[in-house]
């Protein structure tokens, strides 16, 4: 096994990491508001929108990713090209950067996944808090923005981390769209001397490093936003301790 080839291919393949991360986090971040809307539509059972959200999630989650990639990279450009020609629109759709198609496909996939993540996270929040917000004369928007969503976000972070890792690994398929990601660059390097085994080891190592980094970032983010899990300050008055225990239904008594 050529060590020099491994090192050179590893360094060259690192150039595809920004593309991989861009596709992943563009899809993930852009999917957050859309996924939230779909989740709320299903939870609130909004007419028409709820059924459309369910149908969209069913179709996207039930379609293989490689099929979506092939459809958007082959069928959609051909369809748009025929449409533009029929209406005398001077646009060469085949000059569009394939990265655009890759981001679109992964965004569609991420929206469906984020919708399910947020739906489960919102269901995990105690429904009594919404009623408490209404008693406090808060609007539904403020209840969700200040009470429900912050708690749902904390509980959804592990699943969002899993989604980010899944998207990173799935980007290995975008070489089909001629996008030069980690896998595409390594395979191009291998084609010169048929060193495919070495290239696959390089791909394996880079994806392990990238996914480990994503897990580290999400762990730090979870530690930062999980304010309710932090230890209370040591300087707590006896009265506040008594009140807290009584509210939890614990009999508290202390004799001098």
UniProtKB/TrEMBL annotation:
<keyword id="KW-0472">Membrane</keyword>
<feature type="transmembrane region" description="Helical">
    <location>
        <begin position="55"/>
        <end position="79"/>
    </location>
</feature>
<keyword id="KW-0029">Amino-acid transport</keyword>
<dbReference type="GO" id="GO:0015833">
    <property type="term" value="P:peptide transport"/>
</dbReference>
<dbReference type="GO" id="GO:0015031">
    <property type="term" value="P:protein transport"/>
</dbReference>
<protein>
    <submittedName>
        <fullName>Amino acid ABC transporter permease</fullName>
    </submittedName>
</protein>
<dbReference type="GO" id="GO:0006865">
    <property type="term" value="P:amino acid transport"/>
</dbReference>
<feature type="transmembrane region" description="Helical">
    <location>
        <begin position="160"/>
        <end position="179"/>
    </location>
</feature>
<dbReference type="InterPro" id="IPR043429">
    <property type="entry name" value="ArtM/GltK/GlnP/TcyL/YhdX-like"/>
</dbReference>
<dbReference type="Pfam" id="PF00528">
    <property type="entry name" value="BPD_transp_1"/>
</dbReference>
<feature type="transmembrane region" description="Helical">
    <location>
        <begin position="99"/>
        <end position="118"/>
    </location>
</feature>
<dbReference type="GO" id="GO:0043190">
    <property type="term" value="C:ATP-binding cassette (ABC) transporter complex"/>
</dbReference>
<dbReference type="InterPro" id="IPR010065">
    <property type="entry name" value="AA_ABC_transptr_permease_3TM"/>
</dbReference>
<keyword id="KW-0813">Transport</keyword>
<keyword id="KW-0812">Transmembrane</keyword>
<dbReference type="InterPro" id="IPR035906">
    <property type="entry name" value="MetI-like_sf"/>
</dbReference>
<dbReference type="GO" id="GO:0022857">
    <property type="term" value="F:transmembrane transporter activity"/>
</dbReference>
<feature type="transmembrane region" description="Helical">
    <location>
        <begin position="199"/>
        <end position="218"/>
    </location>
</feature>
<dbReference type="InterPro" id="IPR000515">
    <property type="entry name" value="MetI-like"/>
</dbReference>
<feature type="transmembrane region" description="Helical">
    <location>
        <begin position="20"/>
        <end position="43"/>
    </location>
</feature>
<keyword id="KW-1003">Cell membrane</keyword>
<keyword id="KW-1133">Transmembrane helix</keyword>
<comment type="similarity">
    <text>Belongs to the binding-protein-dependent transport system permease family.</text>
</comment>
<feature type="domain" description="ABC transmembrane type-1">
    <location>
        <begin position="17"/>
        <end position="215"/>
    </location>
</feature>
């Amino acid at each position: 096994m050529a060590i020099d080839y491994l090192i050179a291919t590893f360094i060259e393949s690192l150039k595809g990491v920004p593309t991989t991360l861009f596709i992943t986090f563009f899809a993930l971040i852009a999917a957050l508001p859309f996924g939230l809307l779909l989740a709320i539509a299903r939870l609130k059972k909004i007419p028409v929108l709820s059924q459309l959200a369910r149908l969209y999630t069913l179709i996207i989650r039930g379609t293989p990713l490689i099929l979506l990639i092939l459809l958007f990279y082959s069928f959609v450009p051909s369809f748009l090209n025929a449409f533009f020609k029929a209406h005398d629109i001077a646009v060469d759709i085949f000059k569009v950067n394939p990265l655009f198609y890759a981001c679109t496909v992964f965004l569609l996939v991420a929206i469906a996944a984020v919708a399910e993540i947020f739906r489960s996270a919102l269901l995990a929040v105690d429904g009594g808090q919404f009623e408490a917000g209404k008693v406090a004369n808060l609007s539904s928007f403020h209840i969700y923005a200040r009470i429900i969503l912050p708690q749902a976000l904390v509980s959804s972070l592990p699943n969002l981390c899993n989604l980010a890792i899944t998207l990173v690994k799935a980007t290995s398929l975008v070489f089909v769209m001629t996008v030069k990601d980690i896998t595409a660059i390594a395979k191009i390097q291998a084609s010169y001397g048929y060193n495919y085994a070495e290239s696959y080891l390089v791909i394996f190592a880079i994806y392990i490093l990238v996914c480990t980094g994503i897990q580290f970032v999400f762990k730090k983010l979870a530690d930062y936003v999980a304010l309710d899990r932090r230890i209370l300050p040591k300087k707590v008055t006896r009265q506040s301790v008594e009140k807290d225990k009584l509210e939890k239904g614990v009999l508290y008594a202390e004799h001098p």
